[in-house]
Design goal:
mainly beta; four-stranded antiparallel β-sheet; three-stranded antiparallel β-sheet; 7 strands; 53% strand
């Protein structure tokens, strides 16, 4: 079963983070990319933050995205969920 309709090239999504540990960021890009660009989709600056954003991101041919989480050292952690609102074909 496909997650995205045939021919979809981008998704409108709402990534949200919760239970953050320290300052950090979450970035989204198409799964087929070798590496994500140095941009973020959601940022937070303190522990135990709950925050979200709405964005448009490229998706690969299977409808997947790559998630990158970073911040203050290797210990930056968070829980996240991504709601998909729609697609661009």
């Amino acid at each position: 079963m496909r997650a995205a309709p045939d021919g979809a090239r981008a998704a409108v999504a709402q990534p949200a983070v919760t239970a953050t540990e320290g300052a950090g960021f979450l970035g989204l890009c198409a799964n087929a990319r070798a590496g994500c660009p140095g941009t973020s989709s959601v940022n937070w600056v303190v522990k135990d933050t709950d925050t979200a954003n709405t964005l448009t991101t490229a998706i690969d041919a299977t409808g997947k995205v790559k998630v990158t989480i970073g911040g203050q050292g290797a210990a930056t952690k968070t829980h996240f969920v991504i709601d998909v609102v729609g697609y661009y074909i």
